[in-house]
Amino acid sequence: MNNKSEKTAWHGLSTDLPKRMSMKSFLKAYGLDWKVNLPKCKTLDETKRHDIILESNGSVIISFNGNKKLMPDTYSYEYTDTFQGESNYSWVKRGEVKAFTSNQAIRLIKKELGLNGIRCNKEDLGDTIKLVPSGSCTVLFIY
């Protein structure tokens, strides 16, 4: 057992592996050489529309027309008042819009709330967009 590849590591949970090892050998040594069986999908091409359909129930999962997405995402929003710069929720307007991009969603929501033409400070919080209309003690969250 002088072989370095059979030596137990300090934590006792695995063994040291040689420095130069193929990816296939590495995956096998760590028990990661498993295979994923994905469900079979069909692709339909009707008038340059590409639908990826899951075979089991026949529902459309993704639909593309060239590089453009044909199915819009749903964006939810909350529009509320602020107190000392923090959202207060003494009143709130909630709703949803369907849009292809976050910028399109912002335009649709601002139009729906009557904020067209009002400059807003935009802050991207990762999965949420925060808009603070100028000259107003309100805040709009889009997620």
Can you walk me through this structure?
The protein is mainly beta and about 140 residues long. It has 2 domains: about 35-70, no CATH class; about 75-140, no CATH class. It is built from 2 helices and 9 strands; from the N terminus they run H-E-E-E-E-E-E-H-E-E-E. The strands form 2 sheets. The chain has a 5-stranded antiparallel β-sheet with strand order 6-5-9-8-7. The radius of gyration is 26 Å and the shape is elongated. The relative contact order is 0.11. The model is unreliable at about 1-5, about 45-50 and about 55-60 (pLDDT under 50).
Summarize the structure.
The protein is mainly beta and 143 residues long. It has helices at residues 23-29, 102-113, and strands spanning 41-46, 49-54, 60-65, 68-69, 73-83, 86-99, 120-124, 129-133, 138-142. Residues 1-5, 43-49 and 53-61 have low confidence and may be disordered.
Topology summary:
Layout: H1 23-29, E1 41-46, E2 49-54, E3 60-65, E4 68-69, E5 73-83, E6 86-99, H2 102-113, E7 120-124, E8 129-133, E9 138-142
Antiparallel strand pairs: 1-2, 2-3, 3-4, 5-6, 5-9, 7-8, 8-9
